[in-house]
TrEMBL record:
<feature type="domain" description="CstA N-terminal">
    <location>
        <begin position="313"/>
        <end position="427"/>
    </location>
</feature>
<feature type="transmembrane region" description="Helical">
    <location>
        <begin position="360"/>
        <end position="381"/>
    </location>
</feature>
<keyword id="KW-0472">Membrane</keyword>
<feature type="transmembrane region" description="Helical">
    <location>
        <begin position="186"/>
        <end position="207"/>
    </location>
</feature>
<feature type="transmembrane region" description="Helical">
    <location>
        <begin position="126"/>
        <end position="151"/>
    </location>
</feature>
<protein>
    <submittedName>
        <fullName>Carbon starvation protein CstA</fullName>
    </submittedName>
</protein>
<keyword id="KW-0812">Transmembrane</keyword>
<comment type="similarity">
    <text>Belongs to the peptide transporter carbon starvation (CstA) (TC 2.A.114) family.</text>
</comment>
<dbReference type="InterPro" id="IPR003706">
    <property type="entry name" value="CstA_N"/>
</dbReference>
<feature type="transmembrane region" description="Helical">
    <location>
        <begin position="75"/>
        <end position="98"/>
    </location>
</feature>
<dbReference type="GO" id="GO:0005886">
    <property type="term" value="C:plasma membrane"/>
</dbReference>
<feature type="transmembrane region" description="Helical">
    <location>
        <begin position="411"/>
        <end position="430"/>
    </location>
</feature>
<dbReference type="Pfam" id="PF02554">
    <property type="entry name" value="CstA"/>
</dbReference>
<dbReference type="GO" id="GO:0009267">
    <property type="term" value="P:cellular response to starvation"/>
</dbReference>
<feature type="transmembrane region" description="Helical">
    <location>
        <begin position="312"/>
        <end position="332"/>
    </location>
</feature>
<keyword id="KW-1003">Cell membrane</keyword>
<keyword id="KW-1133">Transmembrane helix</keyword>
Amino acid sequence: MYTFLAGVVLLIVGYFTYGKFVEKVFGVNEGRTTPAFTHQDGVDYLPMNTKKNSLIQLLNIAGVGPIFGPIMGALYGPVAFLWIVLGCIFAGAVHDYLTGMISIRNRGAHLPELAGKFLGKFMKHVVNAFAILLLLLVGTVFVTAPAGLLFSLMNGWATMGLILGAIFIYYILATLLPIDKIIGRFYPIFGALLLISAIGVGGGLVITGAPIPELTLSNLHPDNVPIFPLLFLTISCGALSGFHATQTPIISRTTQNEKQGRKIFYGMMIAEGVIAMIWAAAAMSLFDGGTGLNALLAEGGPGAVVSEASTLMLGAIGGTLAVLGVIILPITSGDTAFRSARMIIADYFNISQKKVASRLWIALPLFVISFALTKIDFTILWRYFSWANQSTAVIALWVGAMYLFIAKKNYWIAMVPGIFMTMVTTTYILNAPIGFGLSMTVSYIGAAIATIAVIVIFYAAAKKARENNLPLEDDVSGWKQVS
């Protein structure tokens, strides 16, 4: 229990300390006009207040990742708490803040465009394809996961096909309509359900004195369970997630002032870390250790753990409300996954999104592909999602490091987690059955060589970009802010 409570406190302290430090390193310019005003189009670019932006950002990034990931990560033992706390403060929140703020400085650009500017034109095409793939996987995962939970909750009142269809219809509307019509209007209601589920389960753990394991050297993780690199891919959204790099530009286009960035981007990642801590603690404490958790996961997957934990902590009615809150999480990330994919494709081909028809012909093929992907086994989708997710985070961190290096600022805040996650993702894809299937020893050596090569390439490119005075931001001197 002490490890769990200390972790939550450290996350909150991290926001007020390291978050402030990162903000100071970046250098906020409160007088600079944001894209919400300079590119206002009434669809994707429009100003919204800090409270609304923060809530939308939290719901955008907090899909099933900070719940399902920590539940499966709980099998690795209390070391999961360590990764959630340290990863969230020093990697995930930094990743989200830099991605959001650099996007604001570049007219709300998405990651492919930022990668093209700071890592080279070739990377724009690579990241564009990679981001679309990730968003399709995310959108599909965030259709199947809530559909499964709803199917169980409704106990046969509706078929799985009908539930999937209803979620897809909502996703189509949320993807096509202006951001303030559905997302900006209904997310506060969804946010209430999210808070009920998180606070309810977390409070229940504390009040009942649940036997949450403590972090000690002898209790770090179960014997014969290697944590590298699998832990850092299993728990992604609760600590560090590349999916967030596709979501922050949505809000960078609605942010009114740069000073709001720390609360919106860094702060909401910290909030997601707290959610991850709660579900990791619930999974570790309520099911007779790893054996019981493994059995429940084998029987019904992470969704069964969510349902069982919610009912145990809050009773039948409270548990139902908590499950509804968990269902809302992936739905409110799935809709923005498809929306982000539409925006990235539109930016790539320079297609105006003012007309509904222009949005429609981009979005519909995405939904057709996603529907086809729902026929694939969820566990296989999750493995590919996890690797694609963290690989995207690696790219975003190197973009952040490049920006800060050119600006002659402390680029280590992005480069250190970037180096670590480069090693993680490369080791995984070299070793995993879905990758090259090499031995772990060979994978370690290959990943180390690849990581060193990336560092060398980074310094060569960064020094060249600095010498050529690569512009870090768009010129908005000619724009006047509209009140």
